[in-house]
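Follow-up to my post from last week.
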Amino acid sequence: MLLTTKTSSTGFWVCPFANNSREKPLKNGTSQALPGNPYSRTSPYSRTSLFPSSVSHISIGLPPKASVLSANRTRNIRSIDNNTEIIKFCELGNLDKAMELLFEYEKLKLDARTYCSLLQLCAEYKSIDNGREVHSIIERNGIETGGVLESKLVFMYVSCGHLIEGRRIFDRSESKNVFLWNLLMNEYAKIGNFKESVNMYYRMLELGIEMNSYTFSCILKCFAALENVVEGEKVHEKILKLGFGSYSAVVNSLISFYFKCGRSGSGQKLFDEMRERDVVSWNSMISGYVANGLAVKGIKFFMEMLRLGVDVDLASMVSALAACASIKDMLLSRAIHAYAVKAGFDLKMPFTNTLLDVYAKCGDMDGAVCVFENMGEPNIVSWTSMIAGYAREGLSYEAIELFHEMRKKGIDPDVFTVTSTLHACACSGSLESGMKVHAYIKEKNMETNLVVSNALMDMFAKCGSMENAEAVFSQMPAKDIVSWNTMIGGYSKNSLANEALSLFAKMQPHKRPDDVTVTCILPACASLAALDRGQEIHGYILRNGLSSDHFVVNALIDMYVKCGALVMAKLLFRKILSKDLVSWTIMIAGYAMHGFGTEAVATFRKMRQAGIEPDEVSFISILYACSHSGLLDAGWRFFNIMRNEFYIEPNLEHYTCMVDLLARAGKLSKAYKFIKGMPIEPDATVWGALLCGCRIYHDVDMAEKVAEHVFELEPENTGHYVLLANIYAEAEKWEEVKRLQEKIGKRALKKNSGCSWIEIRGKAYIFVSGDSAFPQAKSIKFLLRDLRRKMNELGHSSKQKYALINEDEIEKEVALCGHSEKLAMAFGVLSLPPSKTIRVTKNLRICGDCHEMAKFISKMLGREILLRDSSRFHHFKDGSCSCRG
DNA sequence: ATAGGGTTAG
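User reply:
Got it. Predicted complex:
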């Protein structure tokens, strides 16, 4: 992060910590419908196994006999017999035969109970086609559908998954019973349309429909999903008033409602007051505590069940195992596994999947693979747990591979699978893989899912494609706080600070910024040096009680450091009770940027005294501090400590700091040898640090040697050419300057124009080099001309060299580059009261002439100037600068 | 005839 020589870096100023690693655990918003239970009483399988012989006998032997019989009866008798006949087949579960008979007697008015039996069977077999046939025959025969028959019709449609048609009949019906209300409410809840369930509940209240335990279970689930504690509590009151307070299913629903709303205390109280607890009550306690992050407490309930001899079932085992996963307790989960083998639950899918997830969450992917390969047929949950496990472990490639493999096996990834896979794509920054997942999402119409869209945006943002993220964001019909935070954080991380700020402003009318939002937006303020905006956000943090959060405080300190308000940063830093590695590192980097090397070293020492181990980032900070304060020996010491005591391999940024340190100390050939001896390939930044040193010490020969490397590695960067041209100019080698001018002209290099800005009363004024349209142009030009004249009069060596290279004809834009900071400073002098520090920020490094001019202004006009360039802060006061030249 | 607890995620 802390680079000294990047000529065009704004990335340096983006906070490296605060927002990046920010990942909040979030509550499960949606619940999925469980797959149909093949052992249920109404399932076709149980029927065939219960009556194997009679079913086959009837379907082969009876039909001809039945039709012969019916042909011989009189119409009246026949219709009675027809009813019994059809009902008989229905009871035997032979829908095909029953339907065949129905078609045969199509024109006859059969009994309502016959149609009921048929519809019941259609519902059980989920046979919508037959169900529709029955319905149309009923209508064609003009059968009265009031009462039970109407109810059955609704039941049939709903059971077959045709909720809308069921609802239509329900709405027309005049005899709605509580059963139908419950049925529909539940169905809406199952598909996640909790709002409609709630609407129906309120309608029931209005109409005075007598509610029962089913109603309450359902509505509590809905209010829990909608996180509406207030309404849920009203339901609780109603339950007590109507005397359902002793129904275990109802109380169990209340317990899980309170746990889902994060009110463990209320759940516990209900459990304590229960007279008759069943397995579900116990299981609700285990899962409730686990979901609220108190896994150990959940396990205690499981143990208590065993101690009291309560019958433990599959759900108890699964919850207990999930608790193990959340606290990564492999030992206990092995014990539970052994117990499950004895009890015979170990082969059940939910159990195996949870076991797999324990291994994956404990980081033991080999163990997870073992479970995965030994289970019969892994289902979608198994695959997803594997993918999520690989993604968590940083094995993105394996995760993405599995995604494609499961598709080949014919298993359709669902929303859980795609979000996990997207996470893997995001972590590895593989846009190409992410695009493939996106294509699949579009194909399956999953973009409507909020979580999926959020994961998509996160993936695009982390892969550096904010255009794609924006496209997803703009077409989302409903955005939650995560959506906004993902986009704002994405802009911040991708150095699009202005976009981050404007989206932050747009968000306000829709959603209240939370702790994550402010940690996402503060780095944007930091990178723009937008102190006023940062302070506003600080105010918001205080007003909303967000300052107890570690991430928030660290981001806040980082913002103050980078906006040049070191005093404020120190104040906040001192107030933190438990400073973590990030807080210390930010402060060390802060001292470094402001040129307080000794303070940085002292802070580093205090950090180690506090028992905090430095990592590679904190070593970058301290090395940067040493190089910028000329602490050569200390720098070497830290470099060696890092390698020998902490076994951290230096990376390019560490090497850059060291080269910078040597180069500034004038040890140019030592620096050259140092680079040559690096075990990793040096980049343009490393060589660039040496080139800067060559300029300070006017070493043209070395500069030429170094420049070759720099130009080769970054041929497009104008900054390097200008730097070498300046070195030539200062050595008065005009031939070479000219040669370089031609080179720059020929290459038609893309301009890297300098730009400076100053914030006055919350508004940023931007000055771009080469642009003559700026506010108060006349006064600024007059002031600068005046200052220049005085500088010359007072014999300030207004170096002709700078003037030559800057104002000559290299190229107009390049030549003017470096003057924007002068304009901004002059604007500050004109616009701010004398007591106020002039704070200017520049995207590139400050030019030498401007540096002289700033010193002069500080002395002549008695103004303090704080200028932040791409590398550090320059604090001008009484004619000198904190960077010591 | 409809429910309450149980596996995977941003």
